[in-house]
Amino acid sequence: MTATTVMLVDDHLVVRAGLKALLDSQPDIEVIGEADSGEQAVDMAVELGPRLVMMDLALGAGIDGVEAIRRIRAACPTLPVLVFTTYDTDADVVRAIDAGAIGYLLKDSAPQEIFAAIRGAVAGQSVLSPPVASRLLQQMRRPDEALTAREAELLTLLAEGLTNKELGKRLFISEATVKTHLAHIYAKLGVDTRAAAVSVALRRDGIR
Predict the structure, then answer these.
(1) d(CA 191, CA 98)
(2) More confident residue, 113 or 133
(3) 58: how many CB neighbours lie within 10 A of its CB?
(4) What CA–CA distance (Å, rounded) separates 98 from 85?
(5) What average pLDDT does this structure show over 8-21?
(6) Which residues belong to any copy of the Response regulatory domain (predicted)?
(7) How high does pLDDT run on average in the chain?
(8) Cα separations (Å) of 74 from 42, 71, 79, 104, 137?
(9) Which of 102, 83, 94, 5 is nearest to 44 (CA)?
(10) How far apart are CA 51 and CA 53, in angstroms?
(11) Model confidence at 150, in pLDDT bands (50, 70, 90)?
C-alpha cells in the first residue's frame, strides 16, 4: 500500500512534532516535510510534491496561511491544502476556502477525525470540522434563504466530505436524487464545485 505523503506547516515545533507522531501512527500516512513559515511552505510544496499539505493560518512573521495556500495552489493546482488551525470564525473559513483550501479542520479534532479528513481531502472531498459544519447548517436554515430544508441539510453533509453514495445513504435517497439536489444547490448559489458551495454559504450574512 502506497502511503499518502503529507507536508506539515505550523510555526510551533511542538505542534508539528505532536501531529507528525500522530500521523506516522497510521500505515497509510507519511509525513515527508515540515515548514515553519508561509514562504518555506510554498518552496517545500513545490520541491517535495506531497499529496497533501496541512496548513495552519497563523504563521508568525511573513505571509500567513491564507496567502501561502493561494501561492501553493497557484504553483501546484492539483495539490490539496487542508487547513489545521485553532481559528474557527466564519471569516477565517471563508478566506481559507476562497484561497483554495479543500477543507478546514480544528486542532481540537479527535485523531480519527483528522485521519478521515486527510483521506477524504486526498480523495478530493471537501471537509469541515463538525462545529464549523454545524454553524453552516444554522445559517442555511434561515427562513429567507433560497435553499430548501433538504438542500440545506445536504449542503451541511457535503461540508463533512461525504460522497454522493454516502449522502444518499445518510438521507435515504438515491444517488440520482442527490445529484439533482446538488444541481439545484449549485444553481441557487451560483457555483459549480462543492468547496465553492460551502464558501458561498458561509459568506452569507455579510461575512467576509
Answers:
(1) 12
(2) 113
(3) 13
(4) 16
(5) 96
(6) 5-122
(7) 86
(8) 10, 5, 10, 19, 31
(9) 5
(10) 7
(11) confident
